[in-house]
Amino acid sequence: MNEVEANKTNQKRERPVAPTRDDLVAGLHARGVCYLTPTPNGDEASLSDDELIVAITRADDARLRFALAGLFLLHPELATRAVELEPALDTNERDELRKHYVAAMYLQRLWRTHLRLEFGEKPLIPEHYTQEMGLPSPDVMHGEFGLRMLCERSPYNDWSSYQQVIDLLGAQPCAPKGIINLEAASGREPAI
Fold first, then answer.
1. Most buried of 22, 27, 34, 157, CB within 10 angstroms?
2. Is this prediction's pTM over 0.90?
């Protein structure tokens, strides 16, 4: 093997292997977003917050990408971290990150009371990207107007997908203890 071939072989070995879907689901479960399946086995790769955020923006699975908004709702500090990671991403990843960041920011205002009862008080996700995306402040109509504008830009039913994130977060099997369970308090069965 000549030197050029040896260098190519070494470069291939040095490239990190992309996390699998199971790795990403396990990373989300570890951070309290546990409505996606399969349930982790414990043999998945451990991912840092940064690795998890970036890998989710690259995921082929739309449900994983929408779970990024759920992650930001439960951990607003990770939304702030995502803003710091954004400049290093390629264009598609950057667009995906911004979309779910802004959606989480709007969802947090729109569902603030519900989220507070489910998960306790969380700091507000700071406003970022709205001006450059031509979207209104999250304070307009408690985020609903901005979320509708964001969703109208998609050829898919993103409104329904974000509503599902809220519903699934509230009905997930790993709900935090000591917080009022809205479904149990209302007497209705959790949605599956």
1. 27
2. no
